Fold this protein.
Amino acid sequence: MDKKTRLRIAFVNQPFLYTSFPNPGDSIGIVTAQIVRRLAPNCDVIVYTPTKGKTLQKTTESHEGVDYQFIPTVSDKLLLKIINKIPGIFTTKKPDYASSFYYFTYGLIVANELKKQKIDIVHLHNFSQFIPIIRSLNPKIKIVLHMHCQWLSQLDRDAIAPRLKYADLIVGCSEFITEKVRQQFPEFASKCQTVYNGVDSHFFSKKETDEYAEQKDIKKLLFVGRVSPEKGVHVLLEAFNKVVEQFPNVSLDIVGGIGTLPKEFIIALSDDDPKVANLISFYTADPVTGETLSYYEQLQKLLSPEASKRVTFCGSVSHKKLDKYYRDADIYINSSLSEALGMPILEAMAGSLPVVGSRIGGIPEAILNEKTGFVFESGDSEALAEASLRLLRDDNLRLSMGEAGHQRAVELFSWDRIVEKLLARYENL
């Protein structure tokens, strides 16, 4: 693609979260960073993202051929505080983060910048309310809405549909997400396509096996993700209690920030999924004691005395340092009750780890059951324990599933392949 025909593409990051580009730690920031650095050789790329703290100044940085523009959000946060004081203005299906008021100034600044920069394609993450603002100031721009969660199929249809008519492409990060959107908005089904999250198969490289690694005394299980109810860490710990009883030479590393996701984001919207809706119990006071314990405190109470000696909560770890944990592990576990796809699953597969994951969301699209790992019914700690024990007891099975997972990650989920497909979709627009 020569200089005259280079596409001018802009990415709009989520407005509520500061992302430390060019080396982000949050999942959507990682998706953005991995895509744009691969688009940059053939396209002119800008990323719009919130500033850090309370600064009122817009700043610009450049890394690897990508311009990052940091947009102030102080006025938006102040407006939201005022609006949230109005009783009854928001409901479960129409929460504040789905309203047209949500970070409106951020969206307006971005829309103006897109016009100034004469952008061809704008790529939005999750927030559909920016579509009409952008379209009003940029009538010829192509708009891509990229969904990493189920919001489009869970939020009020009458509020969302008018926005989607202005989108040119609606992308789901898994076929599960994409199909949910098609079912909710059949009139826009032709606009819906799947572009998987990817993995840096060079960084999360194939695990080198040696005699020591296969015969080491303690086998290690690994979980990577937010320590929050929807991630099913309580299910994992219940399963681990059972595993320790039958296979004492085992440990578990839980890598991820400890902090409960606001119930309005997932749990309150999941009235069609009892397993997720029932997670509200982790947010409410104990009916006997009247105490409201944090999720982490409740997790501690779940562990048996023997299991507690073998579990390490590692806290937040930068994405650059995760590879060490995958290399040290023998089995990767995803115990989520709600998951669009799960990037750590792809990272574990790239690192030649067999994966045990819930049969929920896009997880079965990543794991080939009985080939690259095992898929179990979400919330079933007995089934999770059984699958883990089967892998712990069989070195050859762990090795063969890890090899198959690595091959699948490289062939289907490498960022190079993902971006190649995404660029083709851009050019079709």
